[in-house]
Design brief:
10 helices
Length: 368
């Protein structure tokens, strides 16, 4: 997967910026406040329709601009004709996404078409933050490789919202109890499908993160991960056994759910536990070990998506050099070279052989 051109208009700090990106590694450098991270955000938008940061569309508008617009040409590794992607947002019209000028009916249609991975300082939440952060990582990874999973996830969220609304109403009136059974059955079936795919991913992904660690000679820990569910998982995992376990769980929680007016079990409450040398990363690791794990987690995500799609994701790395010494920086650059297109931001230009440089300070100065 390669991003060939990118046009950014009224997005964050960029009034009107046009870039051409080559193959391999591109280093974007410049002073703080010159829009380096915003370029990575824009790339993520055209690939996945949203920022990799916790930002709303409105947050990405430049100052008092009425709208922003992003346009890009992207080409697959299979050398098919390049495709044009356009993302347009205004507060009046909302967000609209177009591929080759055709509007998308659902933003989920683009997921997996232009695979993209971002590594940023905010990723510390993956190892130190809430279960929601790790679920987002899990869902984003599987969704880019499995459209059936993404469809189940989108439907699950809709059903969960409706079931919670009904549970809230049941606290005050009992005549909707029969409706609850239908929503519960639907939620159970979707939950079983989602959990089955997550368990399969967790087992398969372990080898990819171990591979990532093995590529750094200075990383001596042994990484592992475990899917952590409130559900008592059956010994023999299957759709049928998970459905039976979920049915029993919801039966036991029925009165409590009505009393509290909320769904108390399901994949929206599960977690992904990361470990090194068999112990919890979140509880016992040093800051250096957290940072190491995150870098390897994103590398593993790249390996996993490449293996399943046969398409190398665009790899975005925001301000990673500040977390590494020179030897590990050199090691990382060498690892990135064969991985397709990578775009790295840094405040200082560092010299490496055979990579492309973009100076954002120069970009902005040329427009003043």
């Amino acid at each position: 997967m390669r991003l060939l051109t990118l046009d950014i208009r009224s997005f964050r700090s960029h009034a009107d910026t046009s870039l051409q990106l080559g193959d391999g590694v591109t280093l974007i450098h410049g002073r703080n406040g010159t829009g380096k991270t915003n370029i990575l955000e824009a790339i993520h938008y055209v690939c996945l329709t949203k920022s990799f940061l916790s930002s709303s569309d409105a947050d990405c508008l430049r100052f008092d601009a009425a709208h922003f617009e992003l346009e890009a040409d992207l080409q697959s590794d299979a050398a098919q004709p390049a495709q044009a992607v356009r993302v347009y947002y205004s507060e009046a019209e909302g967000k609209n996404v177009f591929i080759n000028r055709a509007p998308l009916e659902s933003f989920s249609q683009i997921v997996g078409e232009f695979p993209c991975i971002a590594l940023s300082p905010a990723d510390i939440a993956l190892t130190q933050g809430s279960p929601q952060d790790r679920r987002k990582f899990l869902d984003a990874t599987v969704s880019q490789t499995n459209k059936a999973y993404l469809a189940d996830l989108v439907t699950y969220r809709r059903v969960l919202t409706q079931r919670n609304k009904l549970l809230s109403e049941l606290r005050f009136r009992k005549n909707s109890a029969s409706q609850l059974d239908a929503w519960t059955e639907s939620l159970i079936n979707l939950s079983a499908s989602i959990i089955e795919k997550r368990l399969s991913f967790t087992a398969e992904f372990a080898s990819y993160i171990q591979k990532a660690y093995s590529l750094f000679s200075s990383f001596e820990e042994v990484p592992s991960l475990r899917y952590d569910s409130e559900l008592v998982l059956p010994e023999q995992i299957s759709r049928e056994s998970l459905t039976a376990a979920l049915t029993q769980k919801f039966r036991l929680l029925s009165d409590e759910e009505i009393r509290r007016g909320i769904t108390l079990s399901g994949p929206h409450r599960d977690d992904l536990e990361f470990k090194i040398n068999g112990v919890s990363l979140r509880k016992y690791a040093s800051q250096g070990q957290h940072k190491t794990f995150i870098i390897c987690l994103r590398l593993a995500q790249h390996f996993y998506i490449t293996a399943l799609l046969g398409e190398r994701p665009v790899f975005l790395l925001d301000d990673v050099f500040s977390e590494l010494d020179r030897d590990r920086v050199d090691n990382l650059i060498e690892l990135l070279r064969p991985l397709g297109q990578s775009v790295i931001t840094t405040t200082e230009r560092r010299e490496f052989e055979a990579i492309r440089y973009i100076n954002t300070s120069g970009l902005f100065e040329s427009k003043l």
